[in-house]
C-alpha cells in the first residue's frame, strides 16, 4: 500500500514524534525522525529519515541524507557530499545565543496586518 493509504480493516495508531530541547532545525531541512534527543543541529537541506533515531549532540550537515535503520550515537557529526561521519570529543555548545538573537530580531520584521470587519447588509423582507 502507498504510505498514506491503508486498508479500512486495519486500525493504525498514530505514533508521536518526540523532540528534545535546544534543537535547531535550519531552513529547508526535512526530518521524519520519530525520536530526536537534545542539542542537535539539522542543517539546511539535510534529510533525516523516519527510521533514524537521533541521540543528543548530533550535527547533520547541509545536504546530507540519513535514511537508514539506526540509532545515531551521541555527538556524531555527519558532513560532506559523501555523508562522512565522525564523533566529537566534546559535547557541542547549545545554540542558545543564536536562538536568543532570533527571538529579539524576528519580531522587528514580522508585521501583522489588522483585520477589517466586513459589514453585512441586512436582509429586507
UniProtKB/TrEMBL annotation:
One of its GO terms (biological process) is mitotic spindle organization. Gene3D superfamilies: Hexapeptide repeat proteins (2.160.10.10). GO terms for molecular function: dynein complex binding. InterPro entries: DCTN6, Trimer_LpxA-like_sf. It is found in: Chromosome, Centromere, Kinetochore; Cytoplasm, Cytoskeleton. Keywords: Cytoplasm, Cytoskeleton, Kinetochore. GO terms for cellular component: dynactin complex; kinetochore. PANTHER family: DYNACTIN 6, DYNACTIN SUBUNIT 6. Belongs to the dynactin subunits 5/6 family. Dynactin subunit 6 subfamily. Part of the dynactin complex that activates the molecular motor dynein for ultra-processive transport along microtubules. This is Dynactin subunit 6. The gene is Dctn6.
Amino acid at each position: 500500500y502507498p504510505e498514506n493509504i491503508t486498508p479500512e480493516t486495519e486500525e493504525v495508531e498514530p505514533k508521536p514524534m518526540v523532540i528534545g530541547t535546544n534543537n535547531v532545525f535550519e531552513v529547508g531541512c526535512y526530518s521524519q525522525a520519530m525520536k530526536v534527543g537534545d542539542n542537535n543541529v539539522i542543517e539546511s537541506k539535510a534529510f533525516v529519515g523516519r527510521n533514524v533515531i537521533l541521540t543528543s549532540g548530533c550535527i547533520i550537515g547541509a545536504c546530507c541524507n540519513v535514511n537508514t535503520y539506526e540509532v545515531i550515537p551521541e555527538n556524531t557529526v555527519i558532513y560532506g557530499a559523501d555523508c562522512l561521519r565522525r564523533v566529537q570529543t566534546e559535547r557541542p555548545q547549545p545554540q542558545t545565543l543564536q536562538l536568543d538573537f532570533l527571538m529579539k530580531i524576528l519580531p522587528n520584521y514580522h508585521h501583522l496586518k489588522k483585520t477589517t470587519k466586513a459589514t453585512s447588509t441586512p436582509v429586507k423582507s
